[in-house]
Design brief:
Length: 386
Amino acid sequence: MPIEQAYRARWVFPPESEPISDATMIVVDGILTDITTQHVPTAKDLGSAAILPGLVNAHVHLEFSSLSAPIAPPLPFTDWIRSVIRSRQTEDSRESSLLAGIQECLQTETTAVGEIATSPLSTKQLDDCSLAGVVFHEVIGISEQAAREKGNQLTDLLTEYRPQRDQMNLGLSPHAPYSVHPDLLQKIVQLSRSEHCPLAMHLAENRAERELIGSCEGEFRSFLEEIELWPGDVWQEFRTINDYLRLLAQADSALIVHGNDFQSNEIEFLATQSQMSVVYCPRTHAYFQHSQHPLPHLLNHDINVALGTDGRSSNPDLDLWQDARHVRQTFPDLSPREVINLATTNGVRALKLPSDGLTLGEQARWSVISVDRQSSESDPWHLLFA
Ligand SMILES: [Zn+2]
């Protein structure tokens, strides 16, 4: 017997058309079969709510999910990293953190994640839940020796991190320019192409990163010297962010995480690479007090931008809808529809999910957002953020 689910809501927002009022969505065996305004007696009434394509959190570190507040201090950035390293956990506490993070994502209507995994436990936990998405195996290794060793282990590690469930895919995450040797990065890019798996890399996060790769100076150099990992000048062929972007463009697909500090020539390059996306983490960006994110410029250049919460190490929670609201407040010139796309369909494209969630005949993934019953707002897009 096919399993039929029907939900009625004040508004349903299919991705390719205008919102439909007082509509019922019908899902049979997980496939969206109809969105109708006719009365369906068996439908569960969600009341004053909107059904959206599923929210996609394209960048999260679930291992920090048991933190009750972001790790202080946010500045300087390397002091924050020192604190993150001190807070690293045992495998037991990691397991409960991952579980807490998954629960929080589900409770806040997130349907897919781009998880940055530092342990195969992430894969195991995500295989046991209903979230879709990508488990990105995080790779760190800045010294020549670490780069060689990690490079040799990559293929085995991919097997260890590979999810079993159809809805979850495998990816690779070279951490950042200050933590991954360029030789190792090149191996990761090759593997991404041969294994057809997406990459995610923190890039153009702040000025200090540019200073490190450009002149081997600044707070990252002091930090690496202090922890006895200064590799010498390994960035001769990677002096600019564009050098990194050109290499990452050779991957199967790539998510550039943050891009807070992008300059116009980098944005222009990204605009020529449709397999590349940028993930903007709005409340994490605000936590680090960066200057305005180049989001409008990225969108003007038709670059695919998705949203991420990042981890609870830099965000008070993993509620992606609050990040979408933050975007709406920070960039009032963006239409509500554009903001919804960032949080939904753009994330689908970035993570290469098989369906956008609310298209007829495809696997359904949806999120329910309550809308203000009292509001006099008649435009459903504005009502969402009322
Ligand atoms: Zn991150």
